Amino acid sequence: MADGGRPGAIGGAQAIDRAVALLQVLGGAADGDQRLKDLAAKAGLTQPTAARILKALGAHGFVEHDPASRRYRLGLGLLTLAATAAGRSSAKGLARPWLLRLAQDCTANAFLMLRAGTEAVCVDRIDGGVIVHSITGAIGGRVPLGVGPGSLAVLAFLDEREAEAIIALNAARYRAFPGIDADRVARALPAIRATGYAFDPGRVIEGVRGLAVPLRSASAGAVGALSIGALAATLPDDRVPGLAQRLAEAARDIEDGLNPLDPALARPDAYHMEGVP
After folding, report:
1. How does pLDDT run across 154-170, given as a tens digit for each residue?
2. Is residue 142 assigned to a domain?
3. Nearest CA to 21 among 8, 39, 5?
4. Theoretical Cys-Cys bridge with 192: which of 18, 122, 134, 156, CB 3.0 to 4.6 Å?
5. Euclidean distance between CA atoms 167 and 188, whole angstroms
6. Residue 50: which CATH number?
7. Residue 187 falls inside a structural domain
8. Cβ-proximal residues to 193 (8 Å cutoff; 6+ apart), any chain
9. Kind of pairing between the strands at 208-217 and 221-231
10. CA torsion, points 64, 66, 72, 76, in degrees to nearest 10?
11. What is the value of pTM for the model shown?
12. What is the C-alpha to C-alpha distance for residues 80 and 32, in angstroms, rounded to an integer?
């Protein structure tokens, strides 16, 4: 049907086809942004028709328009839909079975931490049948990156210059945690990078030891950490390497299923957990 044809069932289907064509053209753009005339030409549409469809897609958040450059790009509305469609590959959904196993087998509390800018947020935790205090407390608790093994595991596997900037930004906040300062955090990172895990022998909370490995996304780098917290008696030094390997195996399994469109992973430098200030 021509652009100005009579609307109807066929016209409605054709409009959807045209909208999909425009989205596919945008998705295939090398730089992510395209001008209206280029979009229209590649989709086989007139510019007025392409403009009307793009405006409708923009109203739903599927397309974004930059008035200054007059260019269009895919919108975050598509990100949300894709993440919902692939909900089983969300970080939390993938990590939950492992948290249950780790908590039971290690007699520990198991945590999933995700990066939130200069902080790490506890997005899930399973208690292993013992009372073990943690610095994040309940789900939703957050700490500056560099405090506790979970956030250290994230910080160590960021770009080194970014890690240095985060340490500088968090320096004043470290003072709220006994025995932690910017120099100590910076000195801890090389060993974590070398071994692949962060270990707290009980420095943050007396009598509680912690162990963590990073979770990495192919598209966003270090996005979080898988960690356990246990009473010192159940996590002696000789158990640390073996448990670190187990955590690393769990992390690799989780990483293999991660959905790069999961909103929690797409922008870890700006992720904000719903309901958490």
Report:
1. 999 999 999 999 999 99
2. yes
3. 39
4. 156
5. 12
6. 1.10.10.10
7. yes
8. 156, 157
9. antiparallel
10. -20
11. 0.65
12. 18
| Residue ranges making up the domain that contains 151 | 87-266
The 10s digit of each residue's pLDDT in 99-153 is 999 999 888 999 999 998 899 989 899 988 777 778 787 788 889 999 999 999 9
Q: Measuring CA to CA, how many Å separate 37 from each of 52, 96, 147? A: 13, 47, 51
Mean pLDDT of the region 77-93: 64
Q: Which two tokens stand for residue 101?
A: 């196993």
Q: At what angle do helices 240-257 and 91-106 cross, to 10 degrees?
A: 160
Residue 3 lies in a domain: no
Tokens linked to 110: 């198991």
Dist. CA 40–CA 149, nearest whole Å: 52
Range with the poorest average pLDDT among 78-87, 191-200, 208-217 = 78-87
CA pseudo-torsion sign 263, 265, 266, 271: positive
Say yes or no: 235 and 189 in one domain. yes
Q: What is the pLDDT of residues 14-55, one digit of tens each?
A: 888 899 889 888 876 555 678 899 899 999 999 999 999 999
Query: 123 and 242, same structural domain?
Result: yes
When the pLDDT of each residue in the chain is averaged and rounded to a whole number, the result is 84
